[in-house]
Amino acid sequence: MTSALDAIHEFLPCRTPARWIENALANQDLMLIDHAHCEKKAASTALSLMYRYVDNTDLLNKMSRLAREELRHFEQVLAIMKKRGVAYDHLTPARYASGLRQEVRAEDPGRLVDVLIVGAIIEARSCERFAALAPHLDEKLADFYNSLLKSEARHYQDYLALAEKAAGESINDRLATFLEIERALIEEPDTEFRFHSGPVPG
């Protein structure tokens, strides 16, 4: 898993700020609730791509597997929350995903390429955050987050490969644009803590 994490650290524009990790450790119930929302949203995104691009066999296969895995993760987070007496509730979303999606082009094939790039970045950041958090968590939660690393790393690679295939050319310029947006969303202060928020000042 070390090599996969190294690749993700190289891919992402920055590491998660230490202040965000402090926020997460101080708000673990909230972190779990938002993590559950993130897993459900990831499955929903995969399914929506399957409905929109019915003639893309490679995408259909990869997104079907991804959706099943994300829903399984959702169930696992809910089970952890139940054991800890944490109620699953509605949360306002972080600005992270919407901030990335503002740059998505309106027309295909550009739209598909951009949506897949955004998916890759979100999965890579999730993986990076699970790894960053795990050493600071209790044993059971740390084991769970470590268990997610392999699938999240593969999801990011699947999204990138699909984006390159959909583009039919280099996606480096588009990737650079989205990664610069992602850097700002991760490093700049946020007003509310979420799994994909920036750091919330003390």
Brief description of this entry?
This protein has 202 residues and is mostly helical. It has eight helices and no strands. The radius of gyration is 16 Å and the shape is globular.
Structural write-up:
The longest helix is centred in the last third of the chain and has 29 residues, at 139-167. The protein has a single domain, classed as Up-down Bundle (Ferritin). The protein is mainly alpha-helical and 202 residues long. It has helices at 2-11, 18-26, 28-52, 57-83, 95-101, 110-133, 139-167, 172-187. The model has no long low-confidence stretch (mean pLDDT 96). The protein has eight helices and no strands. GO terms for molecular function: tRNA 2-(methylsulfanyl)-N(6)-isopentenyladenosine(37) hydroxylase activity.
Keywords:
202 residues, mainly alpha, Ferritin, 8 helices, tRNA 2-(methylsulfanyl)-N(6)-isopentenyladenosine(37) hydroxylase activity
The biggest sheet, with number of strands, parallel, antiparallel or mixed sense and barrel status, is: none
CATH homologous superfamily heading: Ferritin, core subunit, four-helix bundle
The total number of structural domains is: 1
Distance between the termini: 33 Å
| Strand residue content | under 5%
Order of helices and strands: HHHHHHHH
CATH architecture group name: Up-down Bundle
Q: Runs with pLDDT <50, length 5+?
A: none
Q: CATH topology, what is it called?
A: Ferritin
* Percent helix range: over 70%
Strand elements, count: 0
Shape: globular
- Number of helical elements: 8
Protein name: tRNA-(Ms[2]io[6]A)-hydroxylase
Organism: Marinobacter zhejiangensis
InterPro entries: Ferritin-like, Ferritin-like_SF, tRNA-Hydrxlase_MiaE
GO molecular function: tRNA 2-(methylsulfanyl)-N(6)-isopentenyladenosine(37) hydroxylase activity
